[in-house]
Amino acid sequence: MKLLLRFIGILIVIFVTVVITLEYQIISFSLYEKPKKSDVIIVLGCAVYGKTPSPFFKERLDEALRLYKEGYGKYIIVSGGKGPGENISEAEAGKEYLLKNGIPEKIILTDNKSLSTYENLFFSKKIMDKNSLKTAIIISNKFHLKRASVIAKRIGIDASYSGVFLKRYMLSDEAYGFLREIPALLYTYLKE
């Protein structure tokens, strides 16, 4: 019985250590990673309500607008396929939003096939290669950046990162996002 309790105790210590380590990586990456001038700005897909970007997606798009206007990138890739309840793809909704906010159509490149973070980055890399774009800034929510960085590195994207944080959702979606990313990041590490 003592041996079993000791074994369970060791498992609990390992579990807690892994959780704390992963959460530390997620939080520290979100705090310290900064965008660098690049060839392209990649906006990772996020939910669309009908044809309207969700608050999280709108915030990502607004960050892309800011970075583009400040000269951080020459092009913007908007990524994301059409999910349940979405009338158009996330990429198309993002493109329409950017056009309404003064970005020339020739600047906006779209990936409307992707349905996951991996696919967002995989198809964005193909667009970069096709257009001879070498460096990128990847935009997502702060809680999502560490996992995006692991995937981008595996795919071969030379990237810096810019994260958004919606204070009005701090105790709901943002807090949930920082917790949900723990198993997602662990899965991403173990996948290779």
UniProtKB/TrEMBL annotation:
Gene3D superfamilies referenced in this protein's UniProt entry, alphabetically = HUPs (3.40.50.620)
Residue ranges that the Swiss-Prot or TrEMBL entry lists as coiled coil:
none
The chain positions of domain DUF218 read 39-159
Superkingdom of source? Bacteria
Per the UniProt record, which residue ranges are transmembrane? 6-27
Sorted alphabetically, the keyword list is: Membrane, Transmembrane, Transmembrane helix
Sorted alphabetically, the Gene Ontology cellular component annotations on this record are:
plasma membrane
User: Pfam families in the record, alphabetically?
Assistant: DUF218
> How far does the signal peptide extend, from start to end residue?
none
Could you tell me the Gene Ontology terms of the biological process aspect for this record? Answer: Gram-negative-bacterium-type cell wall biogenesis; peptidoglycan metabolic process
Query: Which protein, by its recorded name, is this?
Result: DUF218 domain-containing protein
Name its species. Answer: Thermoanaerobacter kivui (Acetogenium kivui)
Q: What is the lineage of its organism?
A: Bacteria, Bacillati, Bacillota, Clostridia, Thermoanaerobacterales
